[in-house]
Amino acid sequence: MKHYALNATFLVASACILGGCAGDDNPWQSSTDGGSLRLSLSADGNIAASTRADDTKATIIPAAADFGVSLSRTDGSFNKKWNLLEEFNKEELFPIGEYKIEAFYGDRDVEGFENPWFYASDNVAVTAGDQKNVSLTATLANSMVSIRYTDEFKSNFTSYSAAIRSTGHDYVVFAQDEDRPAYMAPSQIELNLTLTNASGKKVTLQPAGFRAEARRHYIVKIGVNGASSTGNLTLDVQFEEDVVSETVEVPLGDELFEAPAPSVVAKDFTDGETLSAFESFTPVGNPRYEVYAFGGLKEVVLKLNESSTYNPPFGKEVQLVNASDMDQANVNASGISVTGLFRNPDKMGIVELKGFLGKMPIGSHTVSLVAKDMLTRVSEPVTLHVIVSAVDIKIEPVANMEYRGTEGEVYLLTNCADIRDKVTFKVTNNEVAAEVLDIEDISSSEAGGLPYKFKYKVKTPELQMESSPLWVYYGAVADARAQTRLKVDFPKYSIDVDPFAKKVKLRVVPEDPSKLRLITNDLVIISDGKMVNVNRIQKDLETGIINVFDLTESKTYENVEFALSNTSNPRTPISPFTTESIVDVPNGSFAETHKTLSISNLTVGGGFRVSPVNYNVTSSIDRSEPVGWSSVNAKTCYSGAANINSWFVVPSTFSENGYVVIRSVGYNHNGRTPDRSGGAFNMTYYCTNTPGEAGLDKSIGELFLGSYSYDSNGEHRNDGIDFGSRPLTLTFKYRYTPVNNEVAEAYIKVFNSSGKEISQGILRLEASSDIKERTVILDIYDFGEKANTIQLGFKSSASTIRTPSIVIPTGSALNEGGGLKNDNRSANDYKAFAKGSELIIDDVRLGYDPPATMRPVAKKSKSIK
């Protein structure tokens, strides 16, 4: 009893169905989960459309019990095969659903005299709790072919035989006395005849072919016409009436037997040779067929055995003589080079196989070529067997690569030494090709195989990830043959932290100082698991200083980490840090003031005389200053001066209308009142005499944070106040009226606890008739220097001006406007004093955000080595 598989091998679905795997005999336990099937089967051996009583049935009709059964669910979730009908009918339950049921005996691709293929199928639905009875009748699914000879034919040849071949299969040979039909795959059938005449001459012909269909019996009748004695004997091949409408006649004269048969010669290989090679191999020499036909070429057929796993562009076989444009293109694409056959073929042709063989995949392949001449004679097939074995490849890195390195070494182990120079590498997720720089042969010590070992030095893109995939490729397969990961050794470093109020300054400290630029450039900052935006970061690659802006004052930052290039790389954490507080200038708006100058009985300049009466002008000083600020008023408006006169006691700094006025003045602690002016007929009712510059000392006006006093022992000055934060800018509003092109000055200085100046900013102020706003940018603080004291102030003339210019009013500018009388002017309302450059200040603020010039500029990072 024989049982044959159907074309495809039916596999049980890999997934388990309803709690049971497909390999179980009965994985479904409840009738509510499915239904049952029972199959009734019969075999019908009748041949379709036959008119001959003796050829109406298949010669072998299998019993129903010998059939195999397969069942597959249409959604692909179930697929199973049973070798016998009885085994199928023992199944109790199948999951509900739509199925295709198939019954089969034999195999379409197994041909011969005792190999029929019967088949039947139907669609069936399985419903819950029901048994479905299915009835199938299997019929012959392949073709039957018989060869029969006439008596006239037999009398002309001492021996003869026939062979038939379906597309993609080997020949089935009919011996001289074979009268059984052969079961063939439905396809194009090719007929060969081998004849030996009375002279013992032998010839093989391929006179004709036909298209065979399933469930048909084809009778090929071979006879002769004419007579050998007259020299006009021809071969008469007849098919079914509906296959070929006329007989095929081939002359059987002496030329057929005497002239050389077509020949196919193997070059650079031996007919029947088995060539063992690895995939994507390069054949030695130039394996080729050289074809010759004395009577001219009619057909040259190149064939690849049906069992081969390779399906080249031309299929399993191709006819090369006068091939169509499409066949020519497919042959060329397969790596085959053809000469002398495609166009206007004569007697010779060459078929080169080198490129074709190199493309063959893993497996066993047989290439054969047969030539037929114009007399239908055929050559013996010339074959080359090729067994292609798989190339095994394994790769592993020799050592870790340097961060941002571009050269790595990889060991490659293989079972095929010939691939040494034929592999390629790609690296990183972008699959960038890695250039091979050097190859070194190394003896492999790997146990159990892979006897060849090579060390490759490859040039890669700069590697910035902790590990990057490296693929190796070989042959025509697009997929990588092996993979490893190139691991990277990251440079070691630590981070020093210096927090300000709204930024933090970081300092990179590399273990290897030569890596400072590299580390600083590639460093990314992670806060609470998120990468800090690069537009908030400013880096100095030469010093390793990194500023991170837009922080919150007086806040503790935890979970701050650093990585190189990418947040997925190894991280370096730092300890939590707290930002400084934002502290503004005390009373920077000058809203709070207090009276600091109150002097009464102030003599205004000198007296004047209109005979016989002497006149004098008096006034008072009543000035306030902003709370928390100091000035040099105690010196320029000294209450202990020997002469309380407007020329000698002069306020240099005071609040007025919300501003602070800071001015250079003339003064004198021991000044002499100017001589009285005027006489009997004096019409100038004010003193026109002044002390002159020789009679005045000069002082720059100042406003500053700190303390100031003056007494008979001189000045007592303490410039600065305690201050624990580090501002970055000083901003204020001003108006300036200079004398002799002088410039005013704003300054700010920050000192540490040792009294060392750690930052400062000085700004010269030029003339301005309107209120303007200006900003002083402080110098960059040295890393880690903490503030302890701050100095901040304004000067009516710059520090470089040791003796400021003053203007001493003369003439009508001294007219107090009192007329001919003794006059007591209102407080601060008089003109007899000397004043120089005048600076008006308002709205003084400290800034902790960096100015625009210090902000980072968004740009693409560059590779730093």
Question: What descriptive keywords fit this protein?
Answer:
865 residues; mainly beta; Immunoglobulin-like; 6 domains; seven-stranded mixed sheet; 63 strands; rod-shaped; disordered N terminus; disordered C terminus
Question: Are there runs of 5+ residues with pLDDT below 50, and where?
Answer: 1-31, 859-865
User: How many individual β-strands?
Assistant: 63
Class of secondary structure makeup: mainly beta
Mean pLDDT: 89
- Sheet with most strands: 8 strands, mixed
What does this entry look like structurally?
This protein has 865 residues and is mainly β. It has 6 domains: 31-140, Sandwich (Immunoglobulin-like); 143-258; 263-389, Immunoglobulins (Immunoglobulin-like, Sandwich); 393-489, Immunoglobulin-like (Sandwich), CATH 2.60.40.10; 493-578, Immunoglobulin-like (Sandwich), CATH 2.60.40.10; 593-847, no CATH class. 5% of the residues lie in helices and 45% in strands. It contains 7 helices and 63 strands. The strands form 13 sheets. It has an 8-stranded mixed β-sheet, with no helix packed on it. A hairpin with an 8-residue loop joins strand 24 (363-373) and strand 25. The two termini are 78 Å apart.
